[in-house]
Amino acid sequence: MKAVVVGGGIGGLTAAIALRRTGHEVTVLERAPELREIGAGLSLAPNAMRALDALGIGERVRTHSAPSEVSGTLRTSSGRFLRRFRPGRDEPLAAFHRAELHSALLAELPETVVQTGIDVTDAAEADADVIVAADGVHSGFRHWLFPAAPGPGFRYTAWRGVTEPGVGPPVRGSFTMGRGAYFMIHPLPGARACWALGAAEPTPGVRNPSEHAEVARRIADWPAEARELVAATRPDAVLHNDILDLDPLPASRATASRCSVTRLTPCRRTSARARARRSRTPWCSPSRCGTTPCPKRWPRTTPRADRVRRTSRSRRAARRRPTRRRRGGCTRCWR
Ligand SMILES: Cc1cc2nc3c(=O)[nH]c(=O)nc-3n(C[C@H](O)[C@H](O)[C@H](O)COP(=O)(O)OP(=O)(O)OC[C@H]3O[C@@H](n4cnc5c(N)ncnc54)[C@H](O)[C@@H]3O)c2cc1C
């Protein structure tokens, strides 16, 4: 089959590699005049690496990555560790420089497959049996196929940076949570490190005269490792982007409702059913509790001070009575 992949990003190139493996004739059409990926670090979870293994390119791609212990290392902004990475229990993520991952994927495709400088605005333009729309978060194809589906929504804002080789402290990967913000660190091959500061903001598009100074200000009392990494990053290498997100498409929701991935991508129908079931359940919901008495409210047991004064006879009698829950209230909201 003749397949056209619209978009030469990480998703498009991977789709092209997969299609070629299954014997299809593939062309990648990319709008940009030159194929290159900018950005900072990017980590791939073990399931993403397994997908690359299934395509037979996992080992080659892995050589461009460093294992990051971010998956098991969690601490607070005061530096207190809530969790430490434990080999065997936690699986490291594969941390890449985005440009290097993109180049590694591109190297898996023959030169003639990717054609740049082609802006595909209509499916009819592509002479293909199948079109894979991998045109990014602002996908024109998505809008064309699902005009009613909401576009990307603003989630939070993020600053990212990569240190120069050998500059900055050695790192193993960590995730630090603060009030309305996180700081993520990954090691990169070549004695480099990448970091990202994510912060909740009410509106997108707010920019600062010096993004480097803004990051330093925001993490002024955060762990020294974070501050040292930012200090070791060239100010002009600090990127600031708003993070957008897309809801699953209606088609994927419908599929999800009939298969076992429902929990990963909850479909509206399932949640409506779940909501209806919950409303029929006699347990009170936290919102109802406290306003109207819950029909299943358990009677409170005798206060502890009284209980200890009971005689052994009354204790034996109490034991014969049907068991009551120690704590009164609804078993769901514990009121
Ligand atoms: C700050 C940040 C950090 C992230 N970190 C991680 C991470 O650590 N791990 C992770 O797994 N994911 C991460 N992500 C998400 C990940 O980067 C994206 O999911 C991924 O890059 C999407 O790849 P893509 O190929 O689908 O889209 P894109 O990379 O957006 O590529 C789309 C391509 O399509 C081209 N294109 C668009 N329209 C047309 C058209 N009409 N005709 C032809 N070409 C077109 C564009 O020029 C572009 O090259 C991060 C995202 C951001 C923003």
UniProtKB/TrEMBL annotation:
What InterPro entries does UniProt report for this protein, alphabetically?
A: FAD-bd, FAD-dep_Monooxygenase_BioMet, FAD/NAD-bd_sf
Bias (Basic residues) occurs at 310-335
Keywords, in A-Z order = FAD, Flavoprotein, Monooxygenase, Oxidoreductase
Q: Which domain of life is it from?
A: Bacteria
Q: Where is the signal peptide?
A: none
**Domain called FAD-binding: residue spans:** 2-96
Q: Which GO terms describe its molecular function?
A: FAD binding; monooxygenase activity
Q: Which cofactor does it need?
A: FAD
Q: Where is this region: Disordered?
A: 295-335
UniProt-recorded name of the protein: FAD-dependent monooxygenase
